[in-house]
Amino acid sequence: MTTRQDCVVRDRHDPLAPLREQFHLPDGVIYLDGNSLGVRPKATTERMQQVLHDEWGTDLIRSWNTAGWIHLPQRVGNKIARLVGAGENELVVADSTSVNLYKVLSAAARIQRERDPQRRAILSERSNFPTDLYIAESLCKELGWTLRLLEADEVESHLGPEVAVLMLTQVNYRTGRMFDMARLTAAAHAAGVLAVWDLCHSAGAVPVDLKGADADFAIGCGYKYLNGGPGAPAFVWVHPRHADAFSQPLSGWMGHAAPFEFIPHYQPAPGIARYLCGTPPILSMAALECGVDTVLAAEAHGGMAALRAKSVELTELFAQLVEERCAGHGLSVVSPRDAAQRGSQVCLTRSEGGYAIVQALIARGVIGDFRAGDSQMPDILRFGFTPLYTRYVDVWDAVEHLREVMESGEWQRPEFNRRHAVT
């Protein structure tokens, strides 16, 4: 059985341990929620002061040129591209995940309507992230199409002649289950279907190879494993074979071929630049760049392969310790035990008290989160593991707190059962 001292030794010999120093981590907190909001990089504070004081405060509007503000979407996009297997100038930072998903789903739909008008369905997983389903549902209503939702294991076998687009999140937000992007994309293409991938729970946490998988479109957020801060801008990638096929539906001035000519009619920029829309949020993009740099710093320590190896070890250790040390308390691991099918999170379920258990842990300084279920899905206690700053001893201590919460019954206290606005 693993001991706390075993974890201390593993931390001492961890080649990624120096990367933890990049972050501001509050004393007395074990942070296992990087899959919802990444920790603040130390460099972000100085960078934001520079933007506020020098670039905005002193140079004012000149900074669009002198500080290169106008190029931030492409500059940060090229950095993210290195983490997700995209090429130079194929990915840009813009807008939110939901807005970018609307753009790429619309573009995919237009491509398919020209190829085969009989394809009038978007296929997705029933437990996909709700906002993705909402956006797809809205587009389907607009087009007169159908949104088909299936269980994860049913998706591949239903790529029929009526399906136009397959829309999946690579790592499921509820269970941590990870799809085989290359295999499912190949299956989609064999059936004449375009593949759209959401990378919100994988970019910066697990190896992603968009070009290698031959994906068609991808989107993702900047505030989870990329450590860009709350509400950080999202990113969008389009395979070069599709980039000039159609104008995306939100034809804002930043996606124009010549935005500063101020002509009255829209002319889309070439390539991925046409997926820009409005004026870039410079403060947020500057913060996001600091966050992306923390992930790129791992390149000197083995890169995404090393991050993935540690992620697998952390998640496996957590699941193992929960089963060993919390046995008899009704907790079940619902994330896949096969590492090849698991992202960088472990999710637990219990027939009752899930929300209160998470709140009791938070009161002890162990921060995870809770996702409510319904008649088809159980409540989820969710814990994310960011290899850049999560230690093995953090995992051991978190499970020890969980054991104490369960054995003491403190989760039943009234204050832990009062719902907050954000769970």
TrEMBL record:
Pathway: Amino-acid degradation; L-kynurenine degradation; L-alanine and anthranilate from L-kynurenine: step 1/1; Cofactor biosynthesis; NAD(+) biosynthesis; quinolinate from L-kynurenine: step 2/3. It is an enzyme of class 3 (hydrolase). The keyword Plastid does not apply. Its cofactor is pyridoxal 5'-phosphate. GO terms for molecular function: kynureninase activity; pyridoxal phosphate binding. Its EC number is 3.7.1.3. The keyword Hydrolase applies. The modification N6-(pyridoxal phosphate)lysine is found at K224. It catalyses: 3-hydroxy-L-kynurenine + H2O = 3-hydroxyanthranilate + L-alanine + H(+); L-kynurenine + H2O = anthranilate + L-alanine + H(+). InterPro entries: Kynureninase, PyrdxlP-dep_Trfase, PyrdxlP-dep_Trfase_major, PyrdxlP-dep_Trfase_small. Signal peptide: none annotated. Pyridoxal 5'-phosphate binds at T97, S98, F129, P130, T131, D132, T169, D198, H201, Y223, W253, T279. GO terms for biological process: anthranilate metabolic process; L-kynurenine catabolic process; L-tryptophan catabolic process to kynurenine; NAD+ biosynthetic process; quinolinate biosynthetic process. GO terms for cellular component: cytoplasm. Pfam families: KYNU_C. SUPFAM superfamilies: PLP-dependent transferases. Keywords: Hydrolase, Pyridine nucleotide biosynthesis, Pyridoxal phosphate. HAMAP family: Kynureninase. Catalyzes the cleavage of L-kynurenine (L-Kyn) and L-3-hydroxykynurenine (L-3OHKyn) into anthranilic acid (AA) and 3-hydroxyanthranilic acid (3-OHAA), respectively. PANTHER family: KYNURENINASE. Homodimer. Belongs to the kynureninase family. This is Kynureninase.
